[in-house]
Amino acid sequence: MGGRERHIGTAERRARLALRQRLAAGARATTPEEVARSLVALHGTDPATVYLAVGARLAEADGTVAEVGRALYEDRTLVRMHGMRHTVFVFPAELAAVVHASTGPANAAKARAGLIKDMVTGSGGRLTEEWLREVETSALAALARRGQATVAELTRDEPRLKEQFTYAAGRSYESLHTVSSQLMRVLGVEGRVVRGRPLGAWTSSQFRWAVAPPHPDVPSDGAQAELLRRWLTVCGPATEADLKWWTGWRVTEVRRALTAIGATAVTLDGGMTAYVTAGDEEPVRAPAGPWAALLPGLDPTAMGWQERDWYLSPDLRPALFDRSGNVGPTVWWDGRVVGGWGQRPDGEVVWRLLETEGGGREATAAIEAEAARLTSWLAGTRVTPRFRTPLERELSR
Question: What is the mean pLDDT of the chain?
Answer without folding.
Answer: 93
